[in-house]
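Ticket 4471: requesting a sanity check on a complex prediction with flavin-adenine dinucleotide. Repro inputs:
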Amino acid sequence: AAAEPKTIVVVGGGITGLAAAYYLRRSAEAAGLPVRVAIAEASERLGGKIETLRKDGFVIEKGPDSFLARKKAILDLAVDLGIEEELVPINPSGKKSFIVFRGKLHPMPDGLMLGIPTEIAPMLKTGLLSPAGKLRAGLDFVLPARKGNDDESIGDFLTRRLGREVVERIAEPLLAGIYAGELDKLSLRATFPQFREAELKHGSLILGMRRAMRRRPAPAAGAGGAAGQAGQAAQTPADAILARYKGAPFLNFRRGLATLVEALERELSGAEWRRGRKATALRKGAAGASDEPARRYAVVFDDGEELQADAVVVTAPAYEAEALLRDHVDCGMLRAVRYASVANVVLAFDKASFGREFAGSGFLVPRTEGRQITACTWTSTKWLHTSPPDKVLLRCYIGRSGDEDAVSLPDNQLIRLVRHDLEELIGVTAAPVMTEVTRLHRSMPQYPVGHVEAMRDFKRKLAEALPGVWTAGAAFDGIGLPDCIRQAKETAEAAIRELCG
Ligand code: FAD
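Returned structure tokens:
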């Protein structure tokens, strides 16, 4: 008999789920394996955290606002989808950013890499640190590396190397901005393993990061070169993109990140969709209908439908994944990943009445400042595609792990408190011509200390208990969009290999 197609159900239509479905179909085709891919998304809208609002000439990101260019999985996907011509780089002249200290904006010292100083002179000059704080940071050059191989929190690590002042006033606002997290609780190994590598290899975080910083430019000559035989000819399309944008650290698409979601949706038009329906349970050993072979699993939906599956890829947040998997495997690792809630308020102003120039891309507000806003991005300066030329677009962030109450305030109160902080910090008194409030409840996974080992252990147990069931996405191995896409691709390839036996 002709081979019956294998059915694979992907749970979640965020970037991980959509990319996984795309790569499942591609890998299956390459392997000559007939498959049916079904994508289950609880919401009617695809994209998960990615949501772009296109309105009145603005391109407004309600979730992620760009991606790190150097992690190439996302560039490879853009090339595969034929949307690489839509890419836009961050505005190189809008780079300068600021940190609030005691109610005043201070320029971020030059030479920071992920919040870690790599140059001495700007650190000596900055008004963000006391003389004692600067001296303490200098101890990094002489302090021995910690012994042992266990994980620790980012906060413990950075305090140990650089002292509390650098952590609270510089590193925390920068790094916490990425994770909306508390540095004293986030796993170093799961978030910035390169910090620990720098310590081990160079005996100093500052020296190690300086080396990394110096290695970074010249993207065209990067690691991809080793793959080919004849030097220059080995450039991959992703390397070519990096070279074209001269190493811009962040990229987006002209019409926003939704471009990626829309392209995937187009590519996946032949897939089976379950939109607006939530997967509520996973059942083992599904007996197929009489005219169908038995499948290994059934995915049960909130409306009672059961979809038979040979393989399942779960890309939902940890707390949703747990509901599907806990009857079959120990889900302690999933429960340990807590989620912070955040909100952001986008404000648009008429340039003519705004009455203020701002040379930079925005500012960060350390936790110790005791304000509601955690950061403000000067979006129209940072991303030229986001706003008509006669407007100013700002995006203010609210909420971080352990400080999330304000996220639930009604729109008008959120707007009021953001405007209050903007007035106090940078003197903005103009009335916005448009506002857009977005709340992302339980949206930022917080990898706890020991996460990497716990995740490996969980994945091993999952493979034993439920062969053919996979997990991927922000809950697991990196929250950034490129990391989610990398996980999606790796998982899809592994799933197809397993199905091929
Ligand atoms: P999600 O996007 O959460 O998708 C999971 C999907 O599964 C959702 O659509 C959900 O509805 C669905 N689902 C859940 N349970 C079920 C179920 N039982 N049945 C069916 N469907 C279900 N990353 C960057 O790279 N750059 C940034 O600038 C950036 N900024 C960010 C700003 C914010 C405010 C947030 C919240 C995140 C940001 N991130 C950023 C991180 C990045 O956006 C996310 O990690 C990524 O989008 C997660 O994708 P995902 O597909 O793994 O999960």
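Notes from triage: DSSP finds 18 helices and 22 strands in the chain. Leaving this open until the requester confirms.
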